Amino acid sequence: MLRTLIIDDELPVRKTIIGLLGKTCPQVKVLGEADGVKTGVQLIKERSPDLILLDIKMEDGTGFELLNHFDDIKFRIIFITAYEEFAIKAFEFSAIDYILKPVNPEKLANAVKRAEVLNNRDFQIQLEALRESIKNPQGQSKKIVLKTQESIYLLSTDDILHCESDGSYSVFKTLDNQKIVVSRVLKEFDTLLNGSGFLRIHRSHLINLKHIKRFDKADGGYLVMSNGVQIPVSSSGRERLLALFDKIGNE
């Protein structure tokens, strides 16, 4: 059984979640509920749960402030939030689970299933990435979690050279010559890394602007990256790239 606490300052939300868990998650046993940071910290210390469904914004503080009360977090967390672009972006970078209000029963059940099988080492990696994103919301250098079939990686975006599409997979190349294959399409990472110093220069290629060595215009154009790899540039990618160079040159 997953011994679970619900921490949210809205009573109707807590009751809804408890009802949905009862219908969709027989492996969950709800130990109790709290309405804020102070009461939540106390309840966690009293009950030692396996899983917490934790609101981000509460009247007496945030879910992140609640977590700061614990040096060693051994429980899993599913965050609950109203839609906020910054918060959602942070969760996407960390690959940590969240559910939006109003709570969708299927998404709640799926998040609980993932929490059930997540090992502590992988969860700590995800939590570190989330904290980094929360601490550095506007910075281009962020920590991102990449999951493969065998491992989970925590990378600085600065250490990613480029990413290439391989069907339904995305292949990341890093500064230390790692090749990380992730079962997500390139379009997802194009959206996620938008605003973090990356540019889609081809339908199959997403590059880190910090690692461009030169742009050769011959034969339709290609980029040479800092690791020597040549990456083709599509006609639309060429326009975006030249517009970016013009902008940089005029600054």
Report what the structure shows.
This protein is an alpha/beta fold and 251 residues long. It has 2 domains: 2-135, Rossmann fold (3-Layer(aba) Sandwich); 158-250, LytTr DNA-binding domain (OB fold (Dihydrolipoamide Acetyltransferase, E2P)). The chain is built from 8 helices and 17 strands. The chain has helices at 11-24, 37-47, 63-67, 85-94, 105-117, 120-135, 186-192, 235-250, and strands at 2-7, 28-34, 51-55, 57-58, 61-62, 76-81, 98-100, 143-147, 152-156, 160-166, 169-174, 179-182, 198-202, 205-208, 212-216, 222-225, 230-232. The protein has a 5-stranded parallel beta sheet with strand order 2-1-3-6-7, with helices on both faces. It starts with a strand and ends with a helix.
Spatial arrangement of strands, main beta sheet: 2-1-3-6-7
Q: Mind telling me which CATH architecture of the largest domain this is? A: 3-Layer(aba) Sandwich
Question: Compute the gyration radius: what is it?
Answer: 21 Å
Stated plainly, the CATH topology of the largest domain is called Rossmann fold
**What characterizes the major β-sheet?**
5 strands, parallel
- Overall structural class, as computed from helix and strand content, comes to alpha/beta
What is the CA–CA distance across the termini?
A: 59 Å
